[in-house]
Please model this.
Amino acid sequence: MMNYTTRIIFSGLAFLGLAPFAFVSADVPAKKIPIRTEDRLEIDKEDQAAQKIRAERDLQIEQLNLPQDDTVRFEVKQLRIKENTLISTEDLLNNLPLVYDDSQVSLQKAEANLKSELDKNKARRKAEYKRKSAEAGGQERDKLYEKYQKDIEKLEADYATELPRLKERARQNLYDLREIHNVIEHPGRTFQISTRTMSGLTKYFLSVYRDHGYAGIYVYVPAEAVQDGTKPVLKDGDLIIEILEARVSDTTMNYRRYDPTSTEAVPYTDLKEGQKPVINESVFLEWSPVKVGRVINQKQLDNFINLLNLNPDRYVSAIISRGKTSDTVNLGYDVYERQPWHFYIQADNAGSDERQWSPRLGIINTNLTGRDDRITAIYQGPLYSHPVEPFLKNYSVYGSYDFPVFTPRLRLNLYAGHSNFDVFTDDAGGIDFLGGGDYHGGILRFNVFQTGGWFFDVTGSLSHEESRISPSLGTKSDVEMDLWGTGFDIHRSDDISNTSFSFNRVESFDGSSEDKFNDMRQDADPDFTIYTASAAHSRYLDPEKIQRISGSFRLLSANERLVQAKMTVFGGLYSVRGYDENEIVADEGILASLQYEYDLVKHLEAIDKADETESTTGQTDKPWLRKAALLVFTDYGRAEIKHPIATEKRVQELGSVGLGIAATIGDNFDAGVYYGYPLRSTTDTDVGNGRWNFNLIYRF
Model:
């Protein structure tokens, strides 16, 4: 238990500069206790330290150069906060600062943004000057240089003018609340509180509500708290801060549909007569965290909208407005939707020989029943060789249904697939294999929380797989596997960049015997665990989206030898370009890629924009060539075999550099062409023996 002396010292430290003996009447027992000389010296020492801290604090505050406060002052004896039910008075005052900064962006960041904008504008002027001067003659080039110099001088002059204005605006957002602290610490005493200080206090309380996620909050000094007269005064010297926690009186929905024929800058129009929204309104409002009669939690509302906006065919925004009465608010949802049905045909030279150039047909609906449920169906097979019998041989089918469970935060993806392909491999001594299999399962995903645009999800999975290999010589191999998995996924996406990190662990818990696994692959173990960690990032390097850099990394690890169905392929279009497709099949390893793109179409658009001397209105025709990006890349792969047998290599490395082009023609067609140059030799590929890859997609 603290003794008497300790209590006094702690009181003095808790309120820097507060007289230590102000609390003696509350803490001293009825019997007078003499204080020893050494204790009194210790108290005086602590008091001097507190006074020194207070002086240093006041000096630091003066260095902030607070704005002059000439507003009307009121005599205040105590502070009273009323009508706050969501946040207690104690929590409102707990972290009350001595000086409150109401700036939405720090001064340092605002200055950095202003300087960055200056540098970007100077770079644009320089690029424009270089381009025009290269085409001009000597005399005209001198005029262009003179104009360039004047433009740079004007930009720097504008920056020099705006910087002090920026600092002054930041200074005006500072509010001195030291006198409020005095009122709180010395109730009953009279202090002069300015109108500006009161305004700063209400702004601070509003920020506390905002930090707790609430919206629709009004903080003010009620008019009835001020007595009229020759000089306005507060009744009884009470500074009353009233907080209106406005409840929702109504929720409305406004729908707009994408119109490709629209000439508006935003090609969305109101629903036509008889046209229904894609999303189910009753389900939407059931999910909505905002309910009539409750205060809006802005954080929950933002998270809800962010989840809905993960759908590529929908954008939702919310608008808070005045409600039916002065103490309520109305929440309106604006929903922008596009047609949810999508069809595509894709062909590439990736995969085994039987899969290469076999077209992939896909159907996707991003909101099948209006409950934000998504369906996907994909078929791949050589339709050109047997179009009448698409399921004869060398084909695969896949389907999935992804839907929310009670809430958009929890989603279940059910999937199933079947494949039937001839597989030829020299390692098998020239024997043809008919490889096939079936699989089905589910993945449960839960969004744990969001922050700063980042989504943090956890996943769980359960699946059953069957793998069959039927060689033309020898016995048929057939194994079954029951798997369960856990993992997490962290991702963030905006108009400029996309970033994701994920980890997944999959373990077998039932299936075929060890003998059957061994028949399919020597020493394969039915009790296996696979770990996968991956990261990916892409980002535009300029506002015009001319340059883009992207990279990916994937680490795979297994504790035992795996059967072919669970192994990873290395080499080819979607792993290490420049090598033969599926050149190496391994139990574990590393795959990494780095790519840089420069879009010539965006480059020309930026030049045309810089040449514009007057703004234009209306919609201009879109160019038929939407994208033509030259690219360079480097890929790396490290394939590892677990417990290799005599004919297997434990580790093989692949590495390549290359060039390519990615193009978009119209609204529907995408194409990619890549040439990879191998930097490391493998069994089937020599250094420099490169390979072309092609990828074509048509959407409709």
Notes: Residues 406-563 form a domain with the Lipocalin fold (CATH 2.40.128.130). The chain is about 25% helix and 40% strand. The longest strand covers residues 431-451.
